[in-house]
Amino acid sequence: MDHTTVLKNLGFTDAELTGGTHVVTSPIDGAEVAKVHETTLADVPAIIAKSQAAFKAWRTLPAPRRGELVRLLGEELRTSKDALGALVTLEAGKITSEGLGEVQEMIDICDFAVGQSRQLYGLTIASERPGHKMSETWHPMGPCGVISAFNFPVAVWSWNTALALICGNPVIWKPSEKTPLTAMACAKILERAIARFGADAPDDLHQLLIGGADIGAALVESKDVPIVSATGSTRMGSIVGPKVAARWGRSILELGGNNAMIVAPSADLEMAVRGIVFSAVGTAGQRCTSLRRLIVHKSIKSELVEKLKAAYSSLSVGDPRNKNTLVGPLIDEDALSAMQNALENAIAEGGTVHGGEPVTQGVPAGAYAAPALVEMPSQSDTVKTETFVPILYVMEYDTLDEAIAMQNDVPQGLSSCIFTLNMREAETFLSATGSDCGIANVNIGPSGAEIGGAFGGEKETGGGRESGSDAWKGYMRRQTSTVNYSAKLPLAQGVSFDI
Amino acid sequence: MDHTTVLKNLGFTDAELTGGTHVVTSPIDGAEVAKVHETTLADVPAIIAKSQAAFKAWRTLPAPRRGELVRLLGEELRTSKDALGALVTLEAGKITSEGLGEVQEMIDICDFAVGQSRQLYGLTIASERPGHKMSETWHPMGPCGVISAFNFPVAVWSWNTALALICGNPVIWKPSEKTPLTAMACAKILERAIARFGADAPDDLHQLLIGGADIGAALVESKDVPIVSATGSTRMGSIVGPKVAARWGRSILELGGNNAMIVAPSADLEMAVRGIVFSAVGTAGQRCTSLRRLIVHKSIKSELVEKLKAAYSSLSVGDPRNKNTLVGPLIDEDALSAMQNALENAIAEGGTVHGGEPVTQGVPAGAYAAPALVEMPSQSDTVKTETFVPILYVMEYDTLDEAIAMQNDVPQGLSSCIFTLNMREAETFLSATGSDCGIANVNIGPSGAEIGGAFGGEKETGGGRESGSDAWKGYMRRQTSTVNYSAKLPLAQGVSFDI
Amino acid sequence: MDHTTVLKNLGFTDAELTGGTHVVTSPIDGAEVAKVHETTLADVPAIIAKSQAAFKAWRTLPAPRRGELVRLLGEELRTSKDALGALVTLEAGKITSEGLGEVQEMIDICDFAVGQSRQLYGLTIASERPGHKMSETWHPMGPCGVISAFNFPVAVWSWNTALALICGNPVIWKPSEKTPLTAMACAKILERAIARFGADAPDDLHQLLIGGADIGAALVESKDVPIVSATGSTRMGSIVGPKVAARWGRSILELGGNNAMIVAPSADLEMAVRGIVFSAVGTAGQRCTSLRRLIVHKSIKSELVEKLKAAYSSLSVGDPRNKNTLVGPLIDEDALSAMQNALENAIAEGGTVHGGEPVTQGVPAGAYAAPALVEMPSQSDTVKTETFVPILYVMEYDTLDEAIAMQNDVPQGLSSCIFTLNMREAETFLSATGSDCGIANVNIGPSGAEIGGAFGGEKETGGGRESGSDAWKGYMRRQTSTVNYSAKLPLAQGVSFDI
Amino acid sequence: MDHTTVLKNLGFTDAELTGGTHVVTSPIDGAEVAKVHETTLADVPAIIAKSQAAFKAWRTLPAPRRGELVRLLGEELRTSKDALGALVTLEAGKITSEGLGEVQEMIDICDFAVGQSRQLYGLTIASERPGHKMSETWHPMGPCGVISAFNFPVAVWSWNTALALICGNPVIWKPSEKTPLTAMACAKILERAIARFGADAPDDLHQLLIGGADIGAALVESKDVPIVSATGSTRMGSIVGPKVAARWGRSILELGGNNAMIVAPSADLEMAVRGIVFSAVGTAGQRCTSLRRLIVHKSIKSELVEKLKAAYSSLSVGDPRNKNTLVGPLIDEDALSAMQNALENAIAEGGTVHGGEPVTQGVPAGAYAAPALVEMPSQSDTVKTETFVPILYVMEYDTLDEAIAMQNDVPQGLSSCIFTLNMREAETFLSATGSDCGIANVNIGPSGAEIGGAFGGEKETGGGRESGSDAWKGYMRRQTSTVNYSAKLPLAQGVSFDI
């Protein structure tokens, strides 16, 4: 499908794609795809006010009814899967399989959220006082701001939106300025679901903010947006977190990761190689969960590096729309520069670089690079810095304790894993003294989470959780209630106070 | 018991009580009780480092074993209940029954936490991939800073400490500078429990920071204190929250409340009067959950105000150690001034004040005041401002919707209640369109929570939760794990990536 | 739609509808609809063996993948909603709205189960031993036998099947001998979903047993059917329960109810009348949750009875396919006889009967009756006996305690309710000293449960739970595991045993 | 301590120990210890009636208050630990460490239950109807009959009683006729706790039935005992289960086990040997979780058997009060005969027996035997039969699938384990296709469960669960409630029914 067809299939009109001031280019070839209309700063207050109004209505709909809207969203996503996947490829540069996988994740979270809409369980609690009962109930919070990044231009939105909607919250979405089209496509898909849902969905249940950081800042700073879910760089999060805290909001931060894999002597090396390559070079190393550090037992390091070099050399870099391509473009030239700088720094710190060179032959006009494998003598500053490109640093270890200490010795705490067949090593890695990350896997790479678990990480990753488990609680307010249905008024803790 | 006996019974030595630079006075009579040693700013880094070292050991102890320490703490608190309650009275000015009630709450939370130590439940989760299993486990976080206020000088510590300890975290406690002695007493009681517990409790599991705001700031700003639980004013919280966020910590904020009661036409008025008086004047109006606003249906307002005036006139104000006293001193002269200012402002806004005058006759030399009942024509700025004294503003309403809107129209969101016998009113108040507070009660006042529920509030109350329900999760880090025990490596969402 | 069209739309072939030995008649007019093929007793062992084989395969599919089959089933049910609803009307005699409502309930449980398939949560549990971890996981059980009754010929199957399937269990369904066609239709709908699902659904995942009680007995007695979920009469359950227990199986029993409503002085009477009439005469009184006993405060009894008499007199009895009909036929002539007998007994016990007479004019040739309202002087034996027809016994009470005692004084414990606006009464009814039923409602009738809650009752209702909450655990086996990943072997409870 | 002192310390009077008709002997030497008074069949109805009366009062006490009684019970057990442990040794023949361990387990469950008393959590559930709320609450059930066996004469009671009491249920305990004294001692200890608890504990909260099977049958058959928790043989359970089912009660069955360990090639053999010996010969093989079958990989079978033979030969058999004794007496001569018969049968089936002979030298006059290790060519009928003595059958396997199939191929399903360092083997054993038991461990033996997990098993083990996790739900009834606080009456599933 060429991109005109893709956009048409998704319901874009010419007016939407032209005449705006915001230029959209494809990382595949750097070509301009559209000029879309920007939201101005002046528009934001009215948008937030409309969201507040929508909230007043939406929160009164029963949650299972709200779930029905998300079910319809899931149906619409199924219908639009190919087109939306193709647009992800076009706008974010992902290979086709990954573009489709991202849409599948949207569908999965919708299915999950539909069931969840009948399971927003609070608790009934036995009171210590006769004739009293306690309970805990979860209520809608209000407008939920979603700030998302270019690398998962649609899935992150769906994680937040599916849950926010069933929880009774309208959504205001500020997508990456690099990927407004996928955002507009999602908005259209949701609008179709809303149209089928019927009249009890209020207007403005979902609104878009197209534009740059200033627009996002307006969202972050508004007291009328009680929840801000922001996915992106640690730098961005370091601004958002304190700002939201300062105006008593709640933030759900999903920031950077500097994700490692420990490869133990007993590891199934063939499986490890597959896991490493997918994690390190998938999405051209531009996942927050991309594998960036490999901590290999010294007894197998040479063997593993050789296998990896062989695997890396076979990877086809190029147009992500080609069936055989495994490594598409970086998002822009800045990313390519950052990659080259990091490699230079690594060399300066004693590293040996395999691959990593820019690719210009046989590829379109975008920013392409061969993934890099870098053997490092130790975990240097460059290694500890997240560079959002396909560089994998390889280091060796002697004892498991040492490996875990290396794994933990970075500022971020998103994802981590170990490859081992030894159950003592596996369990130690997962224990209180093991990985300090929000995600810790055994015999699978750090990336590719299922939606059933809570997703997120510790330390500079920001502490937020999205998707499965009880992540929905992040979108609701908790109410603890004691009801006295007796004709007496005892005090807790046996306090007496007789007037 | 005179205070010398109380202090002796709690194990204080002369050296601890004299020779320091931090002067402790009793609000009962303003007299100096002790001069305790202050922690200096220079001491703080070493204290935090010791806590980190304690963490390394403590986290490896099984949680049920950690629970045993808290069980012993509960036993020691039972033994010291009278003495510690008396010290609370001495140092914070609470009446005896409330001093003892506060210690009982400590005992309750210990009992609760012991059971919880075997119930730090994570989840096992069915994976979407064959030969895979998912789980979610909760692990210790690291040192937990506790900042507490004068008005619950011991209970708030126990809530945090009992949970922090079973969760595997050492505690560093910065009590109010007005109540260091109760803090030192708690530390001693815990030390006795630790001594009985035995050698596997590491040194420095619990440390005190005695001093002012600068010491607290050092705790708040340290990257090595991943959790800061701070109870106090909204002003304090507005500083702590963003600072902790800025260095990627987690804060649990329990800040101010401007708590209201709606009294509906069907209310059991006799019960309401008792509930109002206890909530509004108990602890001399110095609870975060004290009742500050009364929203009464116009049909019963006169009757209720008359009853309240009668009840207020019978309240004995004075030395909290006297058996008949129901209203003890304010914490200091500043509080008394703030009270008088607020009353003047209320009058200027059209209010009619009943009571509220300073009391100097028949009381010791502290800051005493008669509780004030203030009829207000509307919910003015003064009413919307939390003044931490026994002032109760009374306003009338016509429809329940109006009453709920008034209840919600303040910046804080801690506690709230309705007195009604009508189930439609009661349930509406508890629903998504009802109270916006963390606590919402029916036919009991806003104060006096049981430890089984999560305690805390929304908006400027800070959003934190302590005590019961799953508040323990605030003291742990969540780990989502996927374990592949198959010999294959499928990707989630059906992504294919064949190298 | 005539029934030929309905059957055709559902995919029935002539061969399925003719040539069998099992005659299907419609309660609407007693006419023969089909002659379907019966399962013979000799067939049962092979059917169970095939189910066991299917189990071996199905249990290895990840639960979220199993959920996908249930999602497809939900889609197919949406497609066939009108036709299946019409067949329910034809075969069970329900009015159209109720027939469709029953299918909607099937759709709801599918949506619910899809979400649940990622939430079959077990627990991770902190062990008391260092280097150990505990967890609790839920595993598939094996073939699940479903025995259902004529009155919910399809919904009960869907509740059980949706959960059984996601839990990893094949299903063997023995429907009521009066409603084999709806069962065959459901089997066809599921087959269509399976066909779309693809090759990893094993053969024989769902099988039907068409026939009488002997076939059901073979299922109940088989050691190879670990779960038997049986819905029907208490008499049936009294046989099934001990038989399944005797061969170490698990039974989920949903048996009779003798459901009452208490109407308190403060009740919204207009609402109560609507609730009573729907609960008592809906499905012609043939729901397990039908309202059978009305316990009215003496102060309002006359008024309420008058209103009910008026409402009853306006009810149209007749062909359930007519738009205006609210009361369709009884299932057969036996039911009509039972009704007349019960009314005679009630009269003999002092009752006053309003309505209740057989209706033969203006209706087809089935067993029709006007719903009966019977004023009773006390709760006699006849009142305490569940007669599965539209008889509502009305009694009066003085105090709430007395009313609750009457409510509880029957052998069954399924559903119950109170109509009151008084919160003390409402909460007392729901408390430990209130209703002893599995379902206790306030201001809604006893019937019409949502699928989000656990459905079932106590005492002779059998104790089983289906549908929402953690009812899914009834379909799985629980495994408690302790994993020692340390190099030591401590014993629990500090036992020492040194060899 | 001699037994007179032990009994005296526990508060027994001479009148209690003499003059009855029920002779108590010690398995240590067969000597008569006491003649206690028996409960007659005629007494039982009144006992049950008193329990019902106690229930009416006890259920109204708040659960946290009920928890306080269990806390006091825990304190009393701590005080009596040595004496009660010694009595367990005397009456059941356990070695001292195991007697004390059993009391420690009682203390643990009390601590657990105290916390649980504030966590009898039901759910609040979002309703699909506007103005409605759903919830699920757990209420007390009524008298709980506890039937326990000689081998855990006190712990099983405490598991049930601690939970039953906090859940609001009185207890009627029928201990093994072989161990009435420990039961009477527990009753006394609980009485002391009740005396401290105060007046709101009703009379007859706990009652004993001393006597034989007929007394137990009366309990089992009474409609007024809604819960029967029975621990003992499969034969006993096969009677109890159907009887309780027939009168609509709930049974919690903890019956026999035929527990196996798989020892894989990678196992830590030294650890395995320790685990095997403790599991197989601890409590003289008379635990329901005793290890009875060893399934060893053929590559290590010879080595492991040699090690076991060496370990077995070092075990001291004799008076359990001696510090060095590891194997005390069997419960009686019948057990010794059963052991000799089983060994003969095993030999007839091709087995090779090591040890197993009666021991008469250097031991008191009880029934002593050397533990037996029996190498079996295959899993014969004798192996598949649980003989409640210290016989361990050893078999070999080739593939893990084969080992798991052998593990599962017995009628019982209580406990199981694998020793392996290979994570794939460990996880497979714990998966849906692994062990079919209620308990499945890795690198620890099948016995010695912690109280934090749910304890119990599948198949002929009876399906009951006690102790931790949500086992408390077995002692309560579940109530699903929908409350309509709106002024409308919508029906679920969109049904319309307009009168």
Automatic annotation (TrEMBL), chains A, B, C, D:
Keywords: NAD, Oxidoreductase. Its EC number is 1.2.1.3. GO terms for molecular function: aldehyde dehydrogenase (NAD+) activity. The keyword Oxidoreductase applies. The active site is at 254. InterPro entries: Ald_DH/histidinol_DH, Ald_DH_C, Ald_DH_CS_GLU, Ald_DH_N, Aldehyde_DH_dom, ALDH7A1-like. Coiled coil: none annotated. Residues 21-480 form the Aldehyde dehydrogenase domain. It comes from the Bacteria. Signal peptide: none annotated. Homotetramer. Belongs to the aldehyde dehydrogenase family. This is aldehyde dehydrogenase (NAD(+)). It comes from Ahrensia marina. The lineage of its organism: Bacteria, Pseudomonadati, Pseudomonadota, Alphaproteobacteria, Hyphomicrobiales.
